[in-house]
Amino acid sequence: MSLHAKLQQRAAERRPIRVGLIGAGKFGSMYLAQVPNTPGVHLAAIADLSPAAARANLKRVGWPDDRSSARSIDAAIADGNTHVGDDWRALVGHPAIDVVVECTGSPVAAVEHCLEAFAQGKHVVNVTVEADAFCGPLLAKRAADAGVVYSLAFGDQPALICDLVDWARSCGFPVVAAGRGHKWLPHFSQSTPDTVWGYYGLSPEQAERGGLNPKMFNSFLDGSKPSIECTAVSNATGLTVPSNGLLYPPASVEDIPFVTRPISEGGVLERKGMVEVISSLETDGRVIPYDIRMGVWVTVEGETEYIRNCFEEYNAHTDPSGRYFTLYKRWHLIGLEVGVSVASVALRGEATGVASGWNADVVATAKRDLQSGEMLDGEGGYTVWGKLLPAATSLRLGGVPLGLAHEVKVLRPVKQGQSLSWADVAIDTGTAAYRLRREMEAAFAAPSIRS
Predict the structure, then answer these.
(1) What CATH number has the domain spanning 360-450?
(2) Do residues 272 and 262 make contact, with C-beta atoms less than 8 angstroms apart?
């Protein structure tokens, strides 16, 4: 039975999936816009640091004023409405909630929310992929130990890439490479919130008019977000990562199967079975026509002459050898697609992407020379960007994960381009996120190094 049919069945039985949303910002609002159109789902509660802002976003996406209330979660469930408040623990602990959607964008807070949800027997769809990037494997283990499902969020690129990889492997194709697109030139790694709009292609006036967050947009531009998302994909699929960071080969959609081949066959990959990101800009800055900037892709191999003949007979676009074929989605709809994850974890007990090992990591790397006493400002800021590295490499470096590099004091000078280690910073060791990360290092270190 399809997910939609299962949802319709739950609606007919008046037994909806009850969802609690933590964080009603941009991503959360996109999900909220779709909930009224989804049968068999009741968004029972929203927890946000600013309930007033959450209500404003509900109005913005078209919810009637009488659909949300500050009354208790019990009252909201009885009335078929949605409770809006600031107490995430009350949301997570309510016995009627089936699925928690973590949508804060704060990795340290997200870890705490996930762990408490597991303890309360709730499934979790984790939109805050930054948290998954530095401790996803152990979050997945904690969820499994609690008998619940932990999942990446469909609509965000990591889950969509995992879906393409699963399609390929379920069809019997070896996966040569998989990833996403991005607008990239090497100097973007040094971009700050002050330079982001010029690189991104917007004027400061346009950005201000749209209420756009320069730090958030810069986290995409400077390579942090692509590294975070590729880490999640690698840890979920077992695909390996480049030995010294993403390469961002420029390519049109048509050329992806050409560049995502091993170096020995004219491509850019160190080996088959890797994650990579395709740039929508040539190295001289020219825009590539028909790019994959907002999309996802997987390249597979036709191992036999018969399969390669099939590629040719059905006009599948391949590399010149006819051996490598790329399937792609050119767009993703972000929060508008999260309902797929909610339905999958609640009705099938299946994640739409979940870490199965620790293969990759995102290490905070200096954008400029850093001095003792400076404070790191995390993802998308002025001080560090996130570099994708093999987990074993990060472990040897003692690398500081980008998700924990916010409001952290630098203890000794760090050169531009150098990845930071635990010894370089004064980290807050009291958070659940820090403890979980260090526990994961101890739990997964030996297997990662052996692999």
Answers:
(1) 3.90.1210.10
(2) yes
